[in-house]
Amino acid sequence: MVIMLIVARNISYLMGRTSITGGIYTYTKEAFGRDHAFLSSWFLCLSYLTIVFLNGTALFIIVRTLMGERAHQGISYVVAGNTIYLKETFLSVAVLAGVGLMFIAAKAVLQRLFTVFSLILATGIAVISVFCLPHAFSSGFIWTFGTAGISRANAIFSIAILAPWAFVGFEITSFETAHFDFPVRKSARIIVTSIIIATMAYISMTLISVASVPDGFSSWMDYVAGLDDLKGIDSVPTFHVARSVMEKAGLILMTVTAVSAIMTGIIGGYRATTRVLSTMAEDRILSEKFSSTTYSILFIMAIAIALSLFGRNTLIWFVDLTSFGAIVGFGYTSAAAYKIARMEDNNRVVISGMAGAVISVIFAVVQMVPGILAMDAMGSEAFLLLSLWCLLGFVFYWRTVERSTLTEYSGLFASGTVLFALLLYSALMWLAKRILVAPDADQMRLTLTRGGAILLILVFVGLAIMLYVQNLVREKHAAVEREKIHAVESSLAKSQFLFNMSHDIRTPMNAIIGYTNLARKGEASDEVKGFLDKIENSSQHLLALINDIL
Asked: What is the residue range of 512's domain?
C-alpha cells in the first residue's frame, strides 16, 4: 500500500498540472520525449491486456471449485503439460467476447453493470469479513508463520514484488482528466481511497483464508502445501472458509463476490487498454484505426481470447508480465514527476518521484534477474512471452519511424535499443531456464537444438527490423541533407541571377540615360526636347524599379 501510495502521489501531481488527455503517455512524453512515451505505454498496455486475460480465465477456478470432478469431463487438450477442458475455455471465450461486444454496441449499459459489479464486490467482501474474520483470529492459525526454510524478510519481499500486479488500474484515471466534471485535484483523494480500500480487501481475504482448514490438515501451511492435491471447494481456501463459517449462504456470497471481481477486472482491463491504444494512435505511434473504439476492442478481444485458450494453469506466465508492464509504467511516471517537479521547485514531489523511480528500478531488476528472490519472479515462459511482446513492439516501432519525421521522433535509437536489448535478454533467459530444468543430457541437447532455433529466429527478426529502421533513418537524414544542398544551390542560383540581372539591365539603362543627357546638350527642337525629357523620366523610373527588385 505504501509503495502504491508513493506512485499515486506522483500520478496525482502530474494530473493536477494539466487536464490534457493521454495520462502516463502524455506525462512521459513531456518529460523524456516521444520515444520513452512509446516504451512506457507499450509495456503498460501489456499489463492491461494480461489483466483482461487473467480475469477471463479466472472463471476456470469458479467452475472447477463449484463443479469439482464434473468440470474435468468432455473434450480436452493439453498445453505445456496442462489439461484444458473445452467447456471451461468456452465459458471464458463467451464472457470475453460478450464484454467486448457490449463495449461496441451497448457501452452505457456496460458502464452501469460495471458500477453494479463494483458495489457487489465491495459489499460481498465486507459481509464475508464481518462473519469470517473473528474465526480467523480465534482459530489460532493466524499467529503461525511458515517460510519453507527461507528468511521471513525474503518471503515477504517475494510476495511484495507482485504489488504492481495487485494494484494496477488506479492510474487509468489519469487518461480521463479531460472528461472530469469536478476539479482534477480532487481525484487524488479518490485514488488514495481506492488504494487503501483495496489493501484492506487484500488483507481481509488473506486472513480469512486461514480461518479454517479441512479435516486432515494440522495448520494452514500444511493446507496450502496440499492444495494441488485437492478438488472442488476445498481447493480454494476462501471458498472453503466461507462455506465452513456461513454454510451454503457463505458459498453463494463468495461465488457472487468472486464473479463480480472477475467482471470488474475484465471491463476495467478492456477500458484501460482501449484508452492507451487510442492515446498512442492520436499521436500517430499506432495506426489511426486504433482511435476507433470498435477497432481497439476487436484487437483486445482477439488477443484475450487467443490467450484464454492456453488455460488457467498458465496464469503464472502472465502475472509476471502484468507486474513487469506495471513496473515500467509506474517507473516512467515517477521519473517524469521527479524531473518536472525539479523544474518547478516542488521538493515534496521530487522526493516521492525519486522514491517511486528507485523502487521501480529495484522491482524491475529483481524480476529480470533470477535467484534474487526466494522464488524466481519470472518463469521461462514469461521470458519467452516478453520477448514476443518486444518483437511485436518492433513492428509498431517500425511503422512509427516510417510515418514520422526526424523532428517528431528525435529519440529514435532509445526505443529501438531498449526493445532489442530486452528481446535478446528475455530470449536468452528463456533458453537458459529451459536447459536448466532438463532432466538429462539428451533432453538438454534437444532443448538446446529447438530452443536455439527459436532464439535465432527471434533475434534475427528483431535485428533485421532494427537494421531496416536504422537504414530508414539514414535515408531520411540523407533526404534532409539533399534538401539542404538543394536549398543552398537554389539560393546560389538566385544570387547569380540577381547579379546578372543587376549587371545586364543596369548597363543598357546607364547608356540610355547617358546618351539622353548628351542629346539634351545639343541643338534640338522643343518637340525633341520633350521626347528626351520623357525618355529620361521613364529611364529613372525603370532604374528605381530595378533597384527595388534587387
From this structure: 481-549
Rounded distance between C-alpha atoms, residue 363 and residue 327, angstroms: 7
All residues at 6 or more sequence positions from 189 whose CB lies less than 8 Å from its CB, including other chains: none
Handedness of CA 450, 452, 455, 457 (dihedral sign): negative
* In contact, 243 and 261? CB cutoff 8 Å: no
Tell me the pLDDT tens digit for each residue of 36-61: 888 888 888 888 888 888 888 888 77
pTM of the model: 0.79
Total number of domains constituting the chain:
2
| Residue after which a domain boundary falls, among 317, 346, 378 | 378
Q: Which cell numbers in the block locate residue 430? A: 528463456
Strand partners, 84: 77
d(CA 357, CA 338): 8
| Relative orientation angle of helices 2-17 and 315-343, to the nearest 10 degrees | 50
CA distances from 450 to 78, 376, 434, 463, 465 (A): 20, 23, 11, 20, 23
Q: Are residues 102 and 248 in the same domain?
A: yes
Residue 449: partners with Cβ closer than 8 Å, 6 or more residues away:
none
Residue 357 belongs to some domain of the structure: yes
Amino acid found at 291:
S
pLDDT, tens only, 430-470? 888 888 888 888 888 888 888 889 888 888 888 888 777 77
- The Cβ-side half-sphere exposure at 234, using a 13 Å CA radius, reads 15
Closest of 269, 268, 286 to residue 277, by C-alpha: 286
DSSP, res 376: -
CA distance 38 to 293: 20
